[in-house]
Amino acid sequence: MSGDPVVIQGDRVRLVPPPDIGFARMTEAWVNDPFTRHLIGGPAYQMSLASREDFVRPRLTPSFDGVYLVIEVIDTPEPVIIGAIELRKITPEHRSAEVGILVGDRAYQGRGYGTDAMRALCRFAFEEMDLRRIHLGVMEFNARAIRSYEQVGFVVEGRLRQDTYLGGHYYDSFVMGLLREDFETAERARRQAG
Ligand SMILES: CC(C)(COP(=O)(O)OP(=O)(O)OC[C@H]1O[C@@H](n2cnc3c(N)ncnc32)[C@H](O)[C@@H]1OP(=O)(O)O)[C@@H](O)C(=O)NCCC(=O)NCCS
User: Fold this and answer.
1) Stretch 14-34: mean pLDDT, rounded?
2) What's the whole-model pTM score?
3) For 162, which of 30, 88, 91, 170 could close a Cys bridge (C-beta 3.0–4.6 Å)?
């Protein structure tokens, strides 16, 4: 057995626990970036550091219903933290969970790292946790996110009409779901494509 710490490994990222409460400051910058905040559907007001600490603190320790991990890029000379990903509402009796992802550092959005992280977490959820289904919510206008999730194998299962009010407009959001076989089909197609 190697002495390396256990990490969830993608091709270009790895998923590791948040280092300490100082990580909240990083997330504060991410969620207060107007561009990113719009993509995740708000909120319309600025998030305080204290509220981010309240969010991060319970996620520093493992729990039965959630796994919160930092996305670290590993194809750079030094590892760089670029975002976070979370499996939440883990429901063992239904073998299901919800996932949320944020590549918060804009310099790293649109470069495939988020898709790689999502794939790595879904693989972990299906193969190690033996889940059957993962779902998520995404704003109708977040074309990059929808495309990214489709690449992992997610399909649109439903539209929540006008469920989010942002900047004076109502927007729909989509519920997307991924069954284990959807993931395996997408993975096979990816391997065949080379
Ligand atoms: C959504 C997110 C996880 C996607 O991960 P990513 O690694 O940045 O996505 P990718 O670079 O793999 O791009 C996915 C696809 O979208 C396409 N894409 C990239 N930028 C795009 C844009 N602005 N509009 C539409 N499609 C876009 C890519 O070309 C790619 O498709 P392709 O492989 O067929 O070419 C990440 O960008 C992110 O966290 N963004 C900020 C917050 C957010 O939107 N979170 C999700 C909330 S539900």
Assistant:
1) 95
2) 0.96
3) 170
